[in-house]
Amino acid sequence: MEHITVLDDRRIILGVTGSIAAYKAVDLASKLTQAGARVDVIMTGAAQRFVTPLTFQAVTGRPVYTSMWGTDTGGGLPTHIAHVGLGEGADLLVVAPVTANSLAKLAHGLADDLLSVTALAARCPVVVAPAMDGGMYEHPATQANLAALRERGVAVIEPARGRFASGLVGRGRLPETPVLLGHIRRALGRGGPLENMKVVITAGGTREPIDPVRYITNRSSGKQGYALAQAALDAGACVTLISATQQLPVPVGAVLVPVESAEAMLDAVLTYSRDADALIMAAAVADFRPAEIAQHKIKKADQDDEAPTLALRRTPDILMAIKTQRAATGHPRAVIGFAAESHDLLENAQAKLRRKGLDLIVANDITAPDAGFNVDTNRVVLIDAGGAQHPLDLTSKARVGEAVIARVAALLGTDEEAR
Ligand code: PMT
């Protein structure tokens, strides 16, 4: 697994309490470790009835902390007093799963086990993921404790609805690892270079209907657009993701606006860009659509053994419309386009950059099988308005997303250098 930049080298305390969902925390600890985080697990006594410390030790490669009375001997903590050493300098405290009992302790400041003492000593942001029977979760006492924690700035991950170990159905299940990871990324991204910035991102290939069952589209999977959305979230941005594909998991924290055609994408982009700081057009917008959309399915039987001829019409150019809106309103403050090219990559990209009035264009070579449409990697050259070129070697779409987002921060003057 590729390291995730926002998690890389971060020190995360993972508190595990006594819920049957404790077994899911093993996968979370493993994925966090694989992503580059240093994970220090604290288990309550009840958690150890479900999973052993050895399991967490094996997946994190680090000592697991279980007792308030021991001192740290091998974990390299800033001090040997475990609860102080664990809290000191930690980037995040995540309690997943958190039981009703541990929630109550956290809400009321009780300190009778290593996890609750550490939570009081730590000064880092806190994320909790409740997991319990539906009745316990909905109980006014639990809800009051959650409200008190939220009031104090603790991020609460909503439990999922579903079947419990008891066989009952309700809300109270620990969400799956990707969702937990998404919330953890969001918490770590706070205060990033795009904090409070509104970023609109488009993704996927638009579908232009022929009749109620057929459409014209292209090979875009949306992967590059979704990777950009995740990178913007990791940088602390408020992200609106206008997507022509509904096949990919939506990054936690992004507001999804599903669209189908170029026309619908145009409407959505104009609406959401009105007060946006940045727009990134990664979508492969169809350039042509059927001139007429048949109201009913076109039947073979109606064609006299001939194939029908499809007349095409140009779709609106979204970036050109944004150019006009921006000239009138000043928003979006930064506009980034992509250029998917099969030849004369740099010349064609530069021409689009100028014609569409962009601040940056991502020239995307789509001839190689490992770049462009529907793969996990990409090979691009970032070209800025002054013509300066920044080539990126073949890399993951996640890394391309991060590189583009770093340029967006520079364009908005919110990057490290400007701060
Ligand atoms: O989705 P993936 O499978 O991950 O693939 C990623 C990608 C190859 C689709 C992506 O990296 C990419 O290159 N996106 C742009 C594709 C494209 O439509 O390029 P273009 O050169 O035709 O358009 C230039 C720019 O104008 C693009 O920013 C495009 O979004 C925009 N455009 C295009 C047509 C149109 N009618 N309106 C537009 O605003």
What this model shows, in words?
- The chain is of the alpha/beta class.
- The chain has 2 domains: 11-189, Flavin prenyltransferase-like (Rossmann fold, 3-Layer(aba) Sandwich), CATH 3.40.50.1950; 198-418, Rossmann fold, CATH 3.40.50.10300.
- It contains 13 helices and 20 strands.
- The strands form 5 sheets. The protein has an 8-stranded mixed beta sheet with strand order 13-12-9-14-17-18-19-20, with helices on both faces. Strands 3-2-1-4-5-6 form a 6-stranded parallel beta sheet, sandwiched between helices.
- The structure holds ligand PMT.
- Ligand PMT is lined by residues 220-225, 262, 281-285, 287, 315, 317-319, 337-340, 352, 364, 366, 372-374.
Keywords:
6-stranded parallel β-sheet, 2 domains, globular, Rossmann fold, binds ligand PMT, 8-stranded mixed β-sheet, 419 residues, 33% helix, 13 helices
